[in-house]
Amino acid sequence: MSISPGEPTKRTPGFAKADLTLTREVATPKGANAIATSDDVVWIAYRKRDGGGQGIVAGLDPRTGETLGEIEVAATPGWESGGGGMTVHGDSLWVVGSGEGPSGSTWLTQIDTNDRRVDQSDVRGEFDLEGDIGLDVAVDPSGDVWVLMFEPKPLHVVVKRFDPETRKVVATIPFESQWARRIIAIKGGIVVQDDGPNHQCVFVRIDPATNQETQRRLLPGCFSFSSNGSNGYEEASLWGGFGASIQEIDPITGTLLGDPIQARAYTSGPMVESENGSLWVSGRVTPVNVVNPRRGTIIQTDGGPKDSPIAMTVSGNRAWGVHYRRGMTIYRLSND
């Protein structure tokens, strides 16, 4: 399938005077690199320090950061920065990563999120998907789980569709690329951030009805590529970070929508969307920035760690970020 180009224009929003404050800094194990939130628990993942591939998923109180419990899993996400590899759907947290096994191996873990009791009994299942490296995970409205991963010999990207009812892989969609970053379920399809010429991002859409690619479009660079399922599968929007700007992406065609928002604060770090449509963006000048695309405003943090979060999650007017080797921060937005 040919790649269609997309070209941006630029605009710079004003700075808002609403308050974005750092409410708490929480010590977490070094190496935490993935984060997600369910109804009343923030989940972080990190690898065990014994040299193996196994890891820990910890549940934290969203207000205090207190550890509610820890769960040992076969594997946790391997990204050093940017987040990914964990998602919440319904009453389950899904975690994908790479660990030990007969094939290498990509492991998918399902964890019960029904209550604040966090212990080993919450593990509903661990599944060896027989790949090389697990990259990211998404869940569609039917409950099917889509895993982005590497296959070895020769190294290439694949998407595997996993049916949690039968506990089997029901489809495998191969890519020609040797690198990919994110997978998102949105607007009746599955969107993958694939690699293109000169390491530009490529938007790829998969139709779940056929398990086939229906669109492939080259984007003008990018690292961040974010959507928030809490907005609802049909209502969620899709955003790309293109160096110093961010811009909305049509989740069906991959075309760029409207004008980019330009500001020197943005970097290639994580970007997540809240239920009210605001974007929480990791920044280079300030660690966290909240962008309201409809108002054209940016709200920046004042104080706190100078390093940006390597992964973030958001719910309501709060965001949680994990930092490289230094713990978790909790942010609160008021007067928005």
Please give the share of residues in helix: under 10%
Radius of gyration, in angstroms, nearest whole number: 19 Å
Number of helical elements = 0
The major beta sheet can be summarized as: 5 strands, mixed
The CATH topology comes to Methylamine Dehydrogenase, Chain H
| CATH homologous superfamily grouping | YVTN repeat-like/Quinoprotein amine dehydrogenase
- Under the CATH scheme, the architecture is 7 Propeller
Q: Tell me the distance between the termini.
A: 43 Å
Shape: globular
Structural class: mainly beta
Overall structural domain count: 1
- Poorly predicted sequence stretches spanning 5 or more consecutive residues: 4-12
List SSEs in N-to-C order: EEEEEEEEEEEEEEEEEEEEEEEEEEEEEE
The strand line-up of the biggest sheet is 1-19-18-17-16
The top level CATH class name: Mainly Beta
Question: How many strand units?
Answer: 30
Mean pLDDT: 82
Estimate what percentage of residues fall within beta strands: over 45%
Report on the structure:
- This protein has no helices and 30 strands.
- It is an all-beta fold and 336 residues long.
- The protein has a single domain (4-334), classed as YVTN repeat-like/Quinoprotein amine dehydrogenase (Methylamine Dehydrogenase, Chain H, 7 Propeller).
- The strands form 7 sheets. The protein has a 5-stranded mixed sheet, with no helix packed on it. The protein has a 5-stranded mixed sheet with strand order 2-27-26-25-24, with no helix packed on it.
- Helix content is 0%, strand content 52%.
- The model is unreliable at 4-12 (pLDDT under 50).
- It has strands at 4-5, 14-15, 19-26, 34-37, 42-47, 55-60, 67-73, 86-89, 92-98, 106-112, 123-128, 133-139, 145-151, 156-163, 168-174, 180-186, 189-195, 201-207, 212-218, 225-226, 238-242, 245-249, 256-262, 266-273, 279-283, 288-292, 297-300, 311-315, 318-323, 327-334.
